[in-house]
Amino acid sequence: MNVCTGFIPLSLIKTNEGNIMNVNPLNLENKVALVTGAATGIGASCVEYLARMGAKVMATDIQTELGQQSVDGLREQGLDVAFHTLDVCSENDWDKSVKATLAQFGGLDILVNNAGIYIGGTLLENSLEQVRHVHKVNVESIFLGMKSAAEVMKPGGAAGKGGSIINLSSIAGLIGVPGHSAYGSTKGAVRLYTKHAAVEFGKLGYGIRVNSVHPGVIRTDMGAQAFQDFVDIGLAKTTAEAEELIIGMTPIGKLGEVEDIAQMIVFLASDAAGFITGAEFSVDGGMGAQ
Ligand SMILES: NC(=O)c1ccc[n+]([C@@H]2O[C@H](COP(=O)([O-])OP(=O)(O)OC[C@H]3O[C@@H](n4cnc5c(N)ncnc54)[C@H](O)[C@@H]3O)[C@@H](O)[C@H]2O)c1
């Protein structure tokens, strides 16, 4: 299936017998995904792209009404998606959402740990409460998500077929950015949590790949917060000027769109990425390469 605008799937793969076959390894039919923070932004786009590539997708978020609306729209287009309320900081919610996914779709092969929050301000302005809160939402969620999913994905688990976990980090988890110390420290933790889980799950024979994706500045509500933060800490006079400044920091000369991230998620979720684990993927227009 190739229905995503601008999406060119690979089609030639080498079989174990050494033959080249014309199939689409990005096809996600027979796979079940759970996406967090899926009511809007990057998460909502991931739900759509995964579903258009054939996956059955459980979209989750704390914003129940918006998440349900988004899923209703996709269902009307014939996509096999459902919604469940999930606060990624709640172990109980994780348990219920994973059980709901197994009950509705009969498995779990892909987890996209996407939900996250941003807090700006300089290090001197940040309070301990703010720093603790952003770490709770952005890092503890990754722990709970990987634990809840791996428990059912590993051999002998309720799904039991292994799978792919994709953690949303950030360019701010790789390089320093003014106003991003609290947020960036969470995303640095996500990067390394990913590698530890990948190595451990690999060595223990779980058949679960774990990778991190590092977006540059993407046009979403959170992206807009970054512009405002540049204004608040005095690096730009207006949000328009902040946007120009950020575009100037991006070699490719534009901001990213949610689809740029969703297409990377599809790749990492698919069998085309079968030998990739513990790796970090920048989707940042070259910002981190400088
Ligand atoms: N937009 C960017 O420029 C950018 C850049 C780098 C990384 N990221 C990362 O990508 C991910 C998605 O970002 P986005 O731009 O789509 O953000 P967004 O703010 O547009 O959407 C985030 C979603 O997460 C949900 N959410 C927040 N707290 C939650 C919680 N406790 N439980 C469940 N859901 C919760 C929100 O309701 C919302 O639907 C985040 O992890 C973010 O850090 C974004």
TrEMBL record:
This protein's record includes keyword Oxidoreductase: yes
Keyword Manganese attached: no
Keywords: Oxidoreductase
Protein's name according to its UniProt entry: Glucose 1-dehydrogenase
Source organism: Amphritea opalescens
InterPro entries in alphabetical order: NAD(P)-bd_dom_sf, Sc_DH/Rdtase_CS, SDR_fam
Enzyme Commission (EC) number: 1.1.1.47
Similarity section: Belongs to the short-chain dehydrogenases/reductases (SDR) family.
Alphabetical list of PANTHER family matching this protein: DEHYDROGENASES, SHORT CHAIN, ESTRADIOL 17-BETA-DEHYDROGENASE 8-RELATED
An annotated Gene Ontology molecular function: glucose 1-dehydrogenase [NAD(P)+] activity
